[in-house]
Design goal:
The chain is mainly alpha-helical. It has 20 helices and no strands. Helix content is 76%, strand content 0%. About 3% of the residues have low confidence.
Length: 417
């Protein structure tokens, strides 16, 4: 029975789960016990993700060999550049399609939990990054996890091969457990959809339909136009076979898990199917799960500028560029946390002198539409981790006179899956 279940493609199981969740949510809204499936699924994801990131990065760094061919420099440039360009695209979209919010009806959040300016953001990063690593794993503090896993991984390079093998085995075990949880995604999705329909109904999301369309439309544009343009510039090949494939194998699962960190095993397997350099992707994929934040930059920028439009404020081009830099810096590190970008909105709003009370109303709207916004944002972040990792390697090979046929590589990956 279990083997038959696993043989069905995960995407097909997810689609079936969506249909069942919608049907049960409409026909039997009183069956609240179904919501437990969603709560268990999300709880398991939150529990395993920090440990997974810690072990995978530590294991990857410990196995790094000096002089080995890798593509870190190109990957990092792509991650940072794409995040900034995403913020620029969001600002342009907000200018072309201004959205006004019903702030007086929005649900407010706890303003004490949100950063208020870039100075406090940087101060928190510097002080919290050296926090207790055990506590960071327990709380899901991904920047702290990233910091300590890199340091410990570097130290482990001087350890014996036996010790490295043990760490790698433990990392593989944690990754296997995470993959088991992902296999249970269809059951969790049924519970999550039922709960969303019962608590907010279809009107709860449709009420802010224009904002959802602008967010989702911008993210789709960025991925299929901006990101593919970057791929073409670096590889000089048709980027769409790779772009569509990364969305299929990485973006769709990430849409439902809503965590780039949890999606790491899927991206690692996808890199293996593409035949990429393991010494490179074993580090760049986990790093992207915490640092590649184009989707988050879009969310922060559009939500902030929606607040300015609502208040009748005008923003200049220099101020818009500052916002792009601000969101690009601040959004780094939140892509591994479901809904993590929303609490950075008050920080961006402070750039325009918008009070924290109003900003937190915008955050409240973000939580209302989060079932769509956060899912699409995570899909963009996770799929682009895979897209840019592959692009960096293909670009470096092209410069070295060893070009790779992207279309053929994707075809081989499809056969491997």
């Amino acid at each position: 029975m279990l083997q038959k279940y696993i043989r069905i493609p995960l995407i097909a199981r997810i689609i079936i789960a969506i249909i069942i969740g919608v049907f049960v949510g409409v026909v039997a809204p009183s069956w609240t016990w179904i919501d437990v499936l969603g709560q268990l699924f999300i709880g398991a994801l939150k529990a395993i993700a920090p440990l997974l990131v810690f072990m995978v990065i530590m294991s990857s760094i410990s196995g790094y060999q000096k002089g080995a061919h890798n593509h870190f420099k190109t990957v990092i440039v792509l991650y940072l550049g794409a995040t900034f360009l995403s913020a620029v695209a969001a600002v342009i979209a907000s200018y072309l399609f201004p959205i006004k919010l019903a702030l007086s009806k929005a649900t407010t959040a706890n303003s004490a939990d949100a950063p208020k300016d870039l100075g406090s953001i940087m101060n928190d990063l510097i002080t919290n990054i050296v926090s207790n690593p055990v506590s960071a794993v327990m709380k899901g503090d991904y920047l702290t996890i990233l910091f300590w896993s890199v340091l410990i991984g570097i130290a482990l390079q001087m350890a014996s091969q036996t010790t490295k093998s043990v760490i790698q085995d433990l990392s593989g075990i944690i990754g296997k457990v995470a993959s088991w949880i992902i296999q249970c995604a269809p059951f969790g999705i049924i519970g999550l959809i039922h709960q969303a329909l019962v608590e907010t109904g279809t009107d709860g999301v449709m009420r802010y339909g224009q904002l959802v369309l602008l967010l989702v439309g911008t993210m789709i544009f960025v991925y299929l136009v901006v990101y593919t343009f970057l791929v073409w510039v670096l590889t000089r090949q048709n980027p769409f076979p790779l772009a569509w494939w990364t969305l299929k194998v990485s973006g769709i699962p990430a849409f439902f898990t809503r965590s780039s960190a949890v999606n790491i095993p899927i991206n690692l397997d996808a890199c293996k199917s593409l035949g990429l350099n393991e010494k490179s992707y074993s580090v760049s994929i986990p790093l992207g799960g915490s640092a590649n934040s184009g989707g988050a930059a879009i969310t922060i920028s559009i939500m902030t500028l929606a607040a300015t439009h609502t208040l009748g404020m005008e923003f200049s081009i220099p101020l818009a560029l500052i916002l792009c830099f601000l969101t690009a810096i601040a959004s780094t590190g939140v892509s591994g946390i479901a809904g993590g970008s929303l609490l950075l909105i008050p920080m961006a709003c402070s750039l325009f002198g918008i009070s924290n009370d109003i900003a937190m109303q915008v955050v409240g709207i973000g939580f209302v539409i989060g079932v769509i916004q956060d899912s699409v944002e995570t899909a963009v972040n996770s799929a682009s981790d895979l897209l840019f990792t592959a692009t960096a390697e293909y670009s470096d090979l092209r410069k070295a006179g060893q070009p790779v046929n992207i279309k053929a590589a994707v075809a081989r990956a499809n056969q491997a899956n």
